[in-house]
Each structure stands twice: as C-alpha cells, then as structure tokens.
DNA sequence: ATCATCTTTGACGTTTACGGAAGAGTATGG
DNA sequence: CCATACTCTTCCGTAAACGTCAAAGATGAT
C-alpha cells in the first residue's frame, strides 16, 4: 500500500523555476522548509511520523526526508487540531484515520468494490465526524458565551470610565 | 492580603439545616463533598492549590481543608475551562488572574479614592480584557472555519451513502 | 576538496497533570 | 473510648509530547 520510495530527483531548483510537464507528484520539500511553513520543530515532525500520524516520508539517497505538499498540509492540519481543539495525538490520529477512510471510500467508490463494504465504512466514519462536529459546536457555544461575558465586562468598564471622566462620580461630595 | 484562617465551626449540620443569621461566609465543605460536586479527585484539587489556582483553603483545627462555596464554583470553572476549552492550567491561571485583577479593581472602585487613581486602574484593566476578547474571537473564528469543513465533509459523506443505498452507482452498466 | 549547514538516529531529560501507595493523624457514629 | 471512614503530607511513578544533546553522515556552495 502506497508506493513511496527514494525518488531520483531531490533538489530540482526550489525557488522560482516551475517544472514543466514531467513531474508526477509535485515538488518535494526538505525538513527546513516544512519547519518554516508549519511552525513545528523537526523533532515534533519526526515524532509524528514515529507514532504514525504521517506515512513515512520518502528519502533522498542520503536519507534526508522529503515531504510532499500533502504532507505539509497534513502537518498544518495536525497543528490546528491540536491547538484549536486540544486534541491529543491519539484523537488526531483517529480523525486522520477517518479522513483516510473517506479518501479510500472516494477512491473505492470510483473503483467500485461492493456496496456493503462501502456502506460499512461510511457507517463507521459518520458517528466520528458527528461527534467531532458536536464537540466543535459545544466549544464554539461555550466560547461565545464566555465572549459575551467578557464583552459585557469591557462595556461596563468603559461606562465606568466615562462616568468618571465626565465627573459623574458616585459620590460627588461628602 | 486575604484574611482566611482556621475557623471555629467546621461541621455545622451539612444537609438541610439552613443556618439562621450569624454566619458570615456561608457553609464550608469538606473534601469529599467538593469531590462529589465537582467530579474532580482530591489529588487534582490539592494539585490545583499547590500550583496556585486556588488560594489555599482554610483548615479545621486538625488540618482538614474546608472549602467555601466560591471555591467550589472556582473548581467547576477550572474544570470547564480545562475540558471544554482545552485550556492548560497555565492558561486557566492567567484567566483567573485577570478575573482577580478585575475584582480587585471593582473593590478599589467602590472604596473610591480619588478619580485619577480609579481611571488609572481602569486603564490598566482594559487592555487585558481586550486581549482576552481578541484571543477568544480568534479561537471562535478558527473553530467556526473548522466547523464548516467538518459539516461539508459530513454532508458529502451522507450524500455518498445515499447514492450507494439507492443503487445509484457511478457505473450503471458497461 | 572543503567548509558551513542540515539532517539523521539514538538516547536521555523535561514538563504537565495528575495517579497511587505509605504512614500518620482526624472526625464521628455508636 | 473505639472502630471506621476520611484526610493529610510526602514521595515516587506515569503517559503524553516533545526538548536536547551527541555523534555521524549528507548537501550545497565555493
């Protein structure tokens, strides 16, 4: 599954030269670039690969990792799921697995296996998507509520300040 | 700051008897009650105190912690911020610190010194509230965006399933 | 060929947020 | 007074998610 091995062309002018027809999988990026684009550290990226969040990247003849554009996107997604939703890597892995199933289904759909299998996959994928959507909704709800609180506080604070500024103090004199 | 030391009346009938006039700070709760009401563990609660999320609770003569109703509310808040918003304890601490500052300013305001002092306090409080609001807004924004993605995926997944169910395959025949 | 960077694989260290057990003391119904 | 249940502090352990060297090799530019 997944043919992805040491390619022949590692470097290929990274910075302006748009390769003419002939490339099959787009440009590949070295660790440094990916680090810059994702804001992650090399260690983190390697760790993600280690725990199976990414399929092992292809390598140069010397052993340097080469990431595809899809890898970069995946890493950005991972970071978002982590920081925005507070997902653990395990949860993220599950999420990505669902995505993979979705992609598989799309492919399988086109390559048509049997309907029962596809339905089974869909049925398993849906509740997970559902629960995640629910989780997002709940979080948005709570955050919105919290936001309202803070906004009200800010408003009151400003009102107070204005009152003081206009000399409209609670106790004018004694 | 904060007068809060070993009180004289620890037990005082916890479960039905509403104390008549005379209590100044409401009923105090033992660890077990707090645990039941918050769903937290004693260890976690002690840990929160240890890292300064709560001001150290008062104690019985023997050293048992006694929590106020405010403590319980705070613990519930902590749990919410943690599980629902995915805040780290550090972030929660910061949030609570802001709240404390706000409360302090409110007190100072009510105890009214001169107008200049009050204005100064308000001016210092505002940017903090502002940044908190901005943080929440950003989070809500990203979450909403993520939500849209998920909703779309779910919709597509359902569409696919329906297509399969109705036998509406891509290739009807060859 | 050579130097300055990068990258790799270990391997061990660190932080966060508690869990769990030990040993001792406290609270309380009977 | 006593048994039983709770609680205290202390200290060690842990799982997750990397951080941080170290030693060695790989790349790219000069």
What would you note in describing this structure?
- Two copies of one chain form a homodimer.
- In chain A, 62% of the residues lie in helices and 2% in strands.
- Chain A has helices spanning 31-38, 42-50, 69-85, 89-111, 115-165; strands at residues 58-59, 65-66.
- The N and C termini of chain A lie far apart (85 Å).
- The interface between A and B is large, with 45 and 41 residues.
- The first copy, chain A, binds a DNA duplex (30 and 30 nucleotides) through helix 2.
Described by the principal axes of the CA atoms, the overall outline of chain A is flat
List the chains of the largest interface with their residue counts: A-B, 45 and 41 residues
Distance between the termini of chain A: 85 Å
Q: Count the strands of chain A?
A: 2
How many helical elements of chain A?
Answer: 5
Order of strands, main sheet of chain A, comes to 1-2
Helix content of chain A: 55-70%
Average pLDDT value of chain A? 79
Uncertain regions spanning at least 5 consecutive residues of chain A: 1-22
SSE series of chain A: HHEEHHH
Please give the oligomerization state of what you see.
homodimer
**What's the gyration radius of chain A in Å?**
25 Å
Strand fraction of chain A: under 5%
| Main sheet characteristics of chain A | 2 strands, antiparallel
- Structural class by secondary-structure content of chain A: mainly alpha
């Amino acid at each position: 599954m997944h043919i992805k091995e040491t390619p022949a062309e590692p470097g290929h002018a990274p910075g302006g030269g748009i390769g003419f027809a002939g490339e099959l999988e787009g440009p590949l990026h070295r660790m440094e670039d990916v680090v810059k684009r994702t804001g992650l550290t090399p260690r983190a990226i390697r760790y993600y690969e280690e725990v199976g969040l990414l399929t092992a990247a292809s390598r140069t003849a010397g052993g340097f990792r080469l990431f595809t554009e899809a890898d970069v996107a995946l890493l950005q997604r991972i970071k978002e799921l982590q920081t925005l939703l507070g997902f653990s890597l395990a949860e993220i892995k599950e999420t990505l697995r669902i995505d993979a199933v979705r992609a598989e289904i799309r492919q399988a759909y086109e390559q048509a296996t049997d309907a029962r299998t596809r339905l089974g996959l869909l049925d398993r994928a849906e509740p997970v998507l559902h629960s995640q959507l629910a989780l997002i909704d709940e979080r948005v709800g709570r955050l919105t509520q919290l936001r309202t609180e803070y906004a009200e506080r800010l408003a009151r604070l400003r009102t107070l300040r204005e009152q003081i500024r206009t000399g409209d103090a609670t106790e004018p004199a004694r």
